[in-house]
Amino acid sequence: MTTAAERAALAAATTVHLPSDLGYDDARTPWNLAVDQRPAAVAEPADAAEVAAVVRTARAAGLRVAPQSTGHSAAALAAHGLDDVLLLRLHRLRGVEVDPVRRVARVLGGTPAIDVVEAAAAHGLAVLHGSAPDVGFVGLALAGGLFLYGRKRGLTTNSVVAVELVTADGEIVRASATEHRDLFWAVRGGGGSFGVVTALEVSLFPLPDVHAGLMIWDASRARDVLRTWARWAPDAPDEITTTVRLLRVPPIPDVPDVLRGRDVVLLDGAVLDSDERAAELLAPLRALEPELDTFARVPAAAVARLHLDPEGPSPSVSASGSLAALPEAAVDALLAAWDREPGLLAAELRQLGGALGRVVEGAGALSHLPGQFLLFTVGIAPSHDDAVRLRAQAEGLVTAMAPWLTGRQYLGFAESAVDARVGYDADAWALLSAVRAAADPDRLFAANHPVR
Ligand SMILES: Cc1cc2nc3c(=O)[nH]c(=O)nc-3n(C[C@H](O)[C@H](O)[C@H](O)COP(=O)(O)OP(=O)(O)OC[C@H]3O[C@@H](n4cnc5c(N)ncnc54)[C@H](O)[C@@H]3O)c2cc1C
């Protein structure tokens, strides 16, 4: 890939692993173990200055640069080819500082979301995190970011107040509403095509505790539960956000007894209001008589683990889509597809609408998500053959929902390579392309969903 002089320059800039090095295999392994990413080199910078040095050196050596915090979205990145790419693993950039007076957290580029949740909680504050504690907070925020506070408070990306990033020239700049405004607009929802985010500032909000929990039904109740939930969800008040999953729980020790080895329907949700109001809002779901109902007031930080997402590396394949509506025929189609694809672990529906569906003044490239529901389905694939088989099953399930798909996608949930235009409206895409052409004309940066 490079000359001896270029290799020496990279090694002088930061910790680097080349394919011939012993440490290469460990360094290149992403969170998603189903992905065999083989870049030209892997760098593990310790701070923003090292990131800047390695960006300049990689450019001089003719390599492109792919920032990667955890590799939750490694499948989409690797699908574009990594032969000429230096993978910038950012896990050493880990840290959170909370300013409780301004209610802002400064989060380093490779920090897992749970660190931000816990640092904020120490001050009675909360952040708009996702369902997985170990997703990179910056990766989540650049993609959009939604979970159980979403219908009240919108996408995570709208709560970003500034980013510090290393540009394609190897400069460290700060982008905000008043500085490098084009870049600030583009990174909020536009992803990692514009630079390496070494730190980000995000707004927090007061929330020491919250009414949240799970409801569980046996899979034999799926049709009734899904039909009722799908009728209720679009008009529910913004204060409540829920997700519903069809789940085939493996018989493994790490899961709660009530779930182990069973086929279930699992709902999780949060209500940003009083306990009395929560009881009112949850009544139509309780009328479905769940066998387990854990909804109660809990410390807000507990919501970060409510979804039971796996922590630590895992081999997974998935497919996703955005649904305009979920009438009874769509529920029936989903259940039929779920029965046809027995290898899948979960088929999940996230409730959109509320603040997640509204245009936000002053937002970036992705202000909101169209559609009423996001569909995400996933399987665990220990081997390459499993991955091929399960990818076909996951795509088959989403294809079965074709009559109700919006045609748009939430790129945060797109774990295979897609044409990134499906993530935006036409005006936003045109502007994203223009900002990319100005900020990175040589397309130095490689991203999971590149803006071309
Ligand atoms: C189990 C699981 C649960 C999830 N739950 C949710 C959820 O609840 N809500 C939600 O909205 N999304 C969710 N996602 C999607 C997730 O937010 C995206 O995959 C996100 O891109 C992951 O970021 P990462 O940094 O962890 O992954 P990575 O694969 O490391 O990064 C993905 C892309 O983000 C960019 N990027 C990451 N860090 C930087 C940086 N510091 N500077 C520049 N670019 C960067 C790069 O372009 C990179 O290719 C989930 C994904 C998984 C696998």
From TrEMBL:
Segment forming the signal sequence: none
Q: Write down the SUPFAM superfamilies for this protein, in alphabetical order.
A: FAD-binding/transporter-associated domain-like
Residue ranges of domain FAD-binding PCMH-type in the record:
35-207
Return one GO MF term. Answer: oxidoreductase activity
Matching Pfam families: FAD_binding_4 (PF01565)
Cofactor(s) for this protein? Answer: FAD
| Entry annotated with the keyword Protein biosynthesis | no
Q: Cross-referenced PROSITE patterns, in alphabetical order?
A: FAD_PCMH, OX2_COVAL_FAD
- TM ranges are none
Q: Which InterPro entries match?
A: FAD-bd_PCMH, FAD-bd_PCMH-like_sf, FAD-bd_PCMH_sub1, FAD-bd_PCMH_sub2, FAD-linked_Oxidoreductase, Oxid_FAD_bind_N, Oxy_OxRdtase_FAD_BS
Highest taxon in the source lineage: Bacteria
Can the keyword Metal-binding be found in this entry's annotation? no
Any idea which UniProt keywords this protein has? FAD, Flavoprotein, Oxidoreductase
Family membership noted in the UniProt record: Belongs to the oxygen-dependent FAD-linked oxidoreductase family.
Q: What is this protein called?
A: FAD-binding oxidoreductase
Originating species: Xylanimonas protaetiae
